[in-house]
Amino acid sequence: MTTQVAAFSVGPIVGHCDRTSVRIFGRADIATALPEGKAMLGRIQWRVVAPAGQPAQPWGAVLPFRLNRNFDASGVVILKDLQPGTEYEFRAGWVVNEAAGDGSLSWGDVPAGRFRTAPAADEAPVSLLFGSCCYRFFDLGGRVSDDRADKTFKAMLAHQADYGEVDFTLLAGDQIYADPLNRLGAISAEEQYLSLYRRVFGQPHMQRMMATTPTYMILDDHEIEDNWPASASAADWVGKLPAALKAYQIYQASHSPAMPLDAAGQYLDADPDHLWYSFRRGCVDVFVMDVRTERQLARRTRDRMMISARQEQALTEWLLDGPERVKLIVSPVVVFPDQKRLFRRQDAWEGFVAQRARLLEVIRRHQLKRVAFISGDVHASLVAALHSRRRGEPQTIYNMVSSGLFWPTALLAFRWYGPMLQSSGRLATGGLWSRYRVQLLRGVYSRDAFARLDVTTEGFHYRLFDRRGDPLPDYDVQQSWLPLA
């Protein structure tokens, strides 16, 4: 008897992908049918993509994997022993009978996904798409009622056919809006967060993009509530936050390097004890910061912490491990430039100047010449440079921003970032004088957009595209790294 393999309702999502392995997430629409706990109901098979003009290779053996009712009927499978720099295709879904084997499966209309493993060469160039802040409208029935946000992902898919495939996509915060009307109507229960993720991540173009490009994610405030934790009540810390983080762990963190694996690297082994993570691909090292859940707010500026001391130490050690390599640091909130003094706020790094100064000093003191931050949050896109000197040698750090992927015209009043921005001058560091000078490269784009970043050991090229995928050449920035000491 043949068993039909059903498509996932969310996913497959291609997550962390290194030289020889990849993590793939899927969620089945079987929450009521799945037995309590875990069951081996997931199925996946894969093969190397044949060169053009050659016949397709046969599919490999089917690998069963666990779906977990306690994690919204989702699971993550790890494919191992892959070849570096190789393109694979796969098909993944779920069955109702754990005993269903290879020969009795019918894949029907389950769509195939794709990924390319990381190259073997440490100096290989890297290309990525990045963006943040994707707002969605919902109708009274809780369904997505406006597909303009999803069309952004359609444009990101089409972009790769016209401009070349990228190594990965980076979603730098506010993938969902748990508080679409700010605190009015904000959700707080676990099932509400899970339902929101199903609707948002189940949209067709977003789903297709994540099935064909490795995707890395990190949360920002709207995965919990606006400006978290500035307005958090005692009840929020024991109710809303655990619910939001459980849903985030399932849908965003589970397929990332933040989630620990067992000793053999075969399956997810435990809940993470932190949400920040790092990975390497080609010439680039990436550190993805958690700037939300470890914040320590304080009355005195010097006591405020955007990230924990543990994360700060991990970031410092990562910076100094291979200091000649390109270092991309993902901070969902902008590191620099600051806003003009009258408009400065306590939510971004300009409200945490003491810790920011410590991190910048590590880069300056060790003369790291290939460092850039990647950010979102502000519903605007820009590139800024931060100049300083060390023993007479010039030092430049960059902050590349792309936000939002979709922000409705009805909320145009919030697009005030550009006029409030300090486009040049000294960076605030908490003292009377700062050694850091800000320079805004090109201008500030305050409409929906996504960015493409092409990185080599020689420099980078930042390009901006509007929501429909049309290029915005007035905002292109192409820079060379300063020579290594």
Describe the structure.
With 485 residues, the chain is α/β, with parallel strands linked by helices. The protein has two domains: 3-116, Immunoglobulins (Immunoglobulin-like); 126-480, Purple Acid Phosphatase, chain A, domain 2 (4-Layer Sandwich). The protein contains eight helices and 24 strands. The strands form five sheets. It has an eight-stranded mixed beta sheet. Strands 13-11-10-22-23-24 form a six-stranded mixed beta sheet, with no helix packed on it. It starts with a strand and ends in a 5-residue tail after the last strand. Residues 153-389 form the PhoD-like phosphatase metallophosphatase domain. This is Alkaline phosphatase family protein.
Q: How many β strands by DSSP?
A: 24
Number of helices: 8
Taken together, the total number of domains comes to 2
Report the top-level CATH class of the largest domain: Alpha Beta
In CATH, the architecture of the largest domain is 4-Layer Sandwich
State mean pLDDT (0 to 100 scale): 91
Poorly predicted runs of 5 or more residues = none
Head-to-tail CA distance between termini: 68 Å
Looking at the structure, the CATH topology of the largest domain is Purple Acid Phosphatase, chain A, domain 2
Counting helices, strands and paired strands, the structural category is alpha/beta
How much strand content do the residues show? 25-35%
Fourth-level CATH superfamily of the largest domain: Alkaline phosphatase D (PhoD)
Helix content, binned percent: 10-25%
Radius of gyration from CA coordinates: 22 Å
Spatial shape: globular
Protein name: Alkaline phosphatase family protein
InterPro entries: Metallo-depent_PP-like, PhoD-like_MPP, PhoD-like_sf, Phospholipid_Metab_Enz
